[in-house]
Amino acid sequence: MSDRGWRSRIGDRLRRLRLLGVADRINFWRHMLSTAEANRRFRRSHAGFALPPAPLAFEAYGHVDAGEYLASGQNHARIMVELITQGMPRPAGAVLEWGCGSGRIIRHLKAMGLDAQASVTGVDVDEAAIAWCREHLDGIEFLGCEPSPPLPFDACSFDAVYHYSVWTHLSAESIEASVAEFARVLRPQGLMIGTSHGDGYADMLSPEEKHAYRQGLAVERAGFAEGRKYFLGFHPPAFLQSMLAHRFESVRYVAGVGAADFPQDLWIASRPRMS
Known about the structure:
This protein is an alpha/beta fold. Helix content is 40%, strand content 19%. It has eight helices and nine strands. The strands form two sheets. Strands 3-2-1-4-5-9-8 form a seven-stranded mixed sheet, with helices on both faces. It has a two-stranded antiparallel ribbon with strand order 6-7. The mean pLDDT is 91.
């Protein structure tokens, strides 16, 4: 069994024993101590670069490493911009990040090549993260949203919607509702980009979970509110393919993009079906 598989089994056992919250707090302070010196060096060499408070970063990303926050944010923003640019028949004038957290990706979009005139909006259910983004990240609109649709936007408001590691913490029902909402807020020829836990994460599953997954069923580890990092969802590609095809005219799936920096499955859906 892989190291990640063992960690997953231990986490699942702690969840069942209702000890995962305690373990999470211990893990937070372990991260704080292990990254303290590197983070001090980062702040000295990146004066003026706003970093989210450690509790916000840990809740959203599972770490408090300032260098990782910057590097992964830049790389994921570059990937999203490339996909938007390549997948749109016109320049994207309005882009939405669903589940923007503390701005890890969205803050870099224009630096990575998004049209300078495009409007950029981020939404998240975490009010503290939205408040921090509003205070520290200029030129972007940030709004709070409810866990369930609708989003606070009119129909056909955006050319592109993207999300990274959000479906990975939602139930199948919530994912289906989000897909319908993306189709509503996207303009004709609009583009949806998202990620999921697919086959590359099967090593995290117990034998029983793996059997259900191989039968094409969504596997969920609950015990925490949806959207929290310890609510985990694993979704077979055929499961999401069918769900997206119901709402979009074109669906493309790419398995496990880059083992280290972009390990999740990638979904690109275009041309929402108008009801």
